[in-house]
Specification:
Elements lengths: L4 E7 L5 E6 L2 H7 L2 E4 L12 E3 L3 E7 L2 E5 L1 H13 L47
Parallel strand pairs: 1-6
Antiparallel strand pairs: 1-2, 3-4, 5-6
């Protein structure tokens, strides 16, 4: 999907986040100096997007939004994100299926023979020693 909104996130003088959206790349190019083009992003829609001096990005935010952040905003949001506890995944436990006891399928383990008495020779010992 074509990314047609450019979002710049900065921190204001009072410490709050300031978000400004631009609907074309030309307005953004008038305010920031382009130093390159993103050519290695895993999001293929972001490849070819401009890289600006003093901004971290491009990052995909929504289907049609490309996000750029100042380094201090990027660092703060990354710290907040990494400090959040991960959601615990619920483990699904399998319920044992009961099979009828008289069928051949119910007994998949071969029967165990009783232990040999000490008076019988050990068939694995060729000398007959115990």
């Amino acid at each position: 999907m074509k990314k047609d909104t450019f979002r710049i996130v900065t921190r204001g003088a009072n410490g709050q986040l300031r978000i400004k959206d631009y609907h074309d790349q030309d307005a953004l190019l008038n305010l920031h100096t382009q130093i390159g083009v993103d050519d290695c992003n895993t999001d293929l829609d972001l490849r070819g997007m401009p890289v600006f001096r003093g901004l971290i990005g491009p990052m995909s935010e929504e289907n049609t939004v490309v996000r750029y952040e100042t380094p201090d905003v990027f660092e703060a949001l990354t710290k907040e994100w990494s400090a959040q506890p991960a959601e615990k995944k619920k483990r699904r436990r399998r319920t044992p299926t009961t099979k009828p006891t008289g069928s051949a399928e119910a007994s998949s383990v071969p029967p165990v023979s009783p232990p040999k008495s000490e008076s019988e020779p050990n068939s694995l010992d060729p000398m007959g020693d115990q």
